[in-house]
Amino acid sequence: MIAVIxxxxxxxxxxxxxxxxxxxxxxxxxxxxxxxxxxxxxxxxAAHIEAEPGEERLLPLMVESxxxxxxxxxxxxxxxxxxxxxxxxxTLAVACDRDEAERLASTFDYHRxxxxxxxxxxxxxxxxxEPHLSPNVTAAVFSARDCQVDNRKAALALKRAxxxxxxxxHENAEVSExxxxxxxxxxxRAGGRDFPxxxxxxxxxxxxxxxxxxxxxxxxxxxxxxxxxxxxxxxxEAPLIAxxxxxxxxxxxxxxxxxxxxGATVEEQSFDTTLTAGGVHELLRRAREALPGIDDLPIxxxxxxxxxxxxxxxxxxxxxxxxxxVIATGHHRNGILLAPVTARAIADYLLTxxxxxxxxxxxxxxxxx
Length: 369
What we know:
- By secondary structure, this protein is α/β, with parallel strands linked by helices.
- Helices cover 29% and strands 26% of the residues.
- It has eight helices and 19 strands.
- It has an eight-stranded mixed sheet.
- Strand 14 and strand 15 (250-254) form a beta hairpin.
- The longest helix is centred in the N-terminal third of the chain and has 22 residues, at 59-80.
- It starts with a strand and ends in a 17-residue tail after the last helix.
C-alpha cells in the first residue's frame, strides 16, 4: 500500500493516478479533504501572467502543467461524473494610473523576453474585452493561454474519482507520526492506529514540516504564508467580467454561477488564519480601482488560507533522502496550477522508478547545503 499524507489537490491527484493504475493507495487528511489551501485558492492557471523574475527555472514546469489542464479536466470530469468548470477566456492584467502602466510595461517586456505570448492593449481595447472596467484603465496585457478552474469543484471531483478508482480516503485522520523500520519509511500513525505502507508520499502542504518521525535530513523546509480572500455575488446572467482580471496587486476571478473571487493578501503570520479589517479593506480597495461596479455586490464569503511555501517559492518534488519517502509539497501559490504535472511525475516515479526530467530541478535535497 502507498500512503499519501495530505488530501489537498496534489495529494488527491497523485493518489487518483496511482489508484487508476491499479495500486493500493490511501490518503490521510487532517481535516476534510480538499478544504485546506486547495479550498482557499482562486483556481487561476496563469503560468504567463504570474511569471516573476527569479522564477525562470520554474516557468517551464508551470507552462507544462497549465497546458495539461484541459486533458486533466476532461479525464477527471469523466471519472467523477461532474464538471470542474475549466474556463479558457484568458487573463487580463490592467493598469489604472501612470505608475501602474509603467510597471505593467516593464513586466510585459520581461515576459516577452522569456518568449511568452501576450498582447499589449490600450484602455479602449481592454474595455472592449471587459466593458465594466474602470475608465481609469489606461493599459492592459492580455494572456490568451492563461485560464482558470473552479478549484473547489476540482477537489470534490478528485475525491469522487479517487474512491471510484478503488482508493481509500481517511478524512479527519491527522498523521501524528511517520513510521520508520530498518532505515526506511514504513507507514503512518493516524488516529491512534498504525498503517503499514511500502511507500509514503508527503503532500501535507504547510503542515509537511511538522510531522513527527521525519528525520531532519528529509524534513522539507516549508512554511505557511497567509492569504486573505473574499467573494462577491454577481448576477450569473449578467456578470461584471468574463475572464480573470489582475489590477494593482489584486485579482478578480469570475465563476460560472456569478461568484466573483477577490484575492489575496501575502502575510508571514505562521498558522494564523484570522481575517483582519485592514486585509479585507485593502482587497476591496484594490479590486474597486479596476472594477468599480463591485460597490453594489453583496459579500458572500471571507476566508484565509495558508500557502505551503519553500525557501525559493518552488515546490519540492521527488524522493527524500529517507528511503521509502517521496515528497510533493511547497507549491506556494501554484498548487492548483501544478497539480497535473505533480500527479503525473510523482505517480510515474512510484510506478516505474523513473524520475521525470522536468521535476529534477525541484529535488527535495536541493537545500541540503
